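in:
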């Protein structure tokens, strides 16, 4: 994955933020919407595309487009930086290949400890019995 190449494929759109904020909200388009089409991406290989689609499926539209919004700041430029950083984190997490699990054995000391505890518990219970005459 090449971050610079992916960033060139992003589409940004500035829209008016919702919520409180007075006249600034009505005048300035500070909310930034980021769109990334995974299928049309040239920066991702086919294997990476399938992995990203699989991992990001709940966040994608029906056309496999990832849409992120940011209206945290009053500045459009800062919102653009925030949403780009968030996008890069999401895409790198989705492309990670999980490590294969290596099966491990139970250590001999653990087995011996369990058997010793069972024996001691058995002896405690045997000592509670009435002695045979």
């Amino acid at each position: 994955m090449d971050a610079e190449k992916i960033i060139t494929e992003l589409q940004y759109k500035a829209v008016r933020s919702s919520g409180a904020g007075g006249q600034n909200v009505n005048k300035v388009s500070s909310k930034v919407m980021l769109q990334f089409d995974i299928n049309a991406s040239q920066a991702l290989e086919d294997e990476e595309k399938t992995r990203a689609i699989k991992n990001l499926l709940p966040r994608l539209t029906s056309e496999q487009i990832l849409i992120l919004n940011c209206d945290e700041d009053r500045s459009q430029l800062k919102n653009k930086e925030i949403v780009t950083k968030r996008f890069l984190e999401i895409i790198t997490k989705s492309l990670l290949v999980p490590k294969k699990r290596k099966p491990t054995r139970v250590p001999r000391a653990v087995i011996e400890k369990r058997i010793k505890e069972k024996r001691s518990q058995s002896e405690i219970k045997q000592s509670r019995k009435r002695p045979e005459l």
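note: The CA atoms of residues 111 and 117 lie 10 Å apart.
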